[in-house]
Amino acid sequence: MAATTKSRFRNLVPGAVLVCIFFGAAVLSFFYTPFDVEKFNIAQRMLRPDAVHWLGTDHFGRDILSMLMVGARTSLAVAFVAVSIGIVVGVPLGLMAASYRGRWLDELIMRGNDLVFAFPALVIAIMITAVFGPSAVNAIIAIGIFNIPVFARLTRGAALGIWNREFILAARVAGKNSVRISVEHILPNILNLLIVQGTIQFSLGILAEAGLSYVGLGAQPPTPSWGRMLADSQTLTNLAPHLALFPGMVIVLSVLGLNLLGDGLRDWLDPRLRRE
Fold it and tell me: Assign residue 175 a region: left if phi > 0, alpha if psi is -120 to 50, beta otherwise?
């Protein structure tokens, strides 16, 4: 029993620790950063890590640690809001498609999901920015639109396996309509799947935001962004490799932490493992 519990915490604990560190840095950046991220200091440009600037400075003399803290705020906010859009819109669509399985509404929703899946987040962002211009808000919209069919498909597939259960039949005999059954019986039984998928999409959202910022379609200057820090450093890697090293490490560790957290939550919420 102890070995089983320990194995279930093997991914959950380190993932939760990494996620808490990045969320803590993002929250702290609202109140404190070691240096002003909007203040240029050309005399101290591209300094290597030392006792004053723990992670060095960039090509404008800005403190990299401070920029990473503020960049965490940007990346996590974009990913969180985008995933929230996917959940708020995609889950009801999936529940609706499952309750009308095999009918025209089910086909309409799923074919619409197929249409959205044909356009990756980057392509959607390019189309949106071509009309409204590049910004963090447009990046949120692009990533959020791409997340909608992910949650819709997952919700529909999980809900279909529950609609034929005996307790659902009992609820229908009791006079409950499809909406009440979906909210009161279907949704609680698939909530663990949605939580795990939410953490996975959160990590993918961070990667998508970094990619959009890297090509100039995400957060715009002077707002720091992990992806744009990588883009700014690509021509200076030979002179100051730390300019690319630290933003890259932050992106990798944040995505790793969320993936570990998702794996740990999946094991923790799995009813079969819980019974064991």
Answer: left
Higher-pLDDT residue of 254, 134: 254
Q: How far apart are CA 57 and CA 75, in angstroms?
A: 20
Phi-psi region of 77 (alpha: psi -120 to 50; beta: other; left: phi over 0): alpha
Quote the DSSP letter at residue 47: P
Question: C-alpha dihedral over 138, 141, 143, 145, to 10 degrees?
Answer: -150
67-to-45, 58, 121, 167, 214 alpha-carbon distances in Å:
14, 9, 25, 53, 15
What six digits make up the tokens of 84? 């929230």
For the chain, give every domain's residue range: 11-28+59-275
Cα–Cα dist 187/229, whole Å:
40
- pTM for the model stands at 0.88
The per-residue pLDDT of the chain, averaged, comes to 87
Give the single-character DSSP code of 52: S
For tokens 């993936």, what's the residue? 259
DSSP assignment, residue 184? I
- As assigned by CATH, the class of the 11-28+59-275 domain is mainly alpha
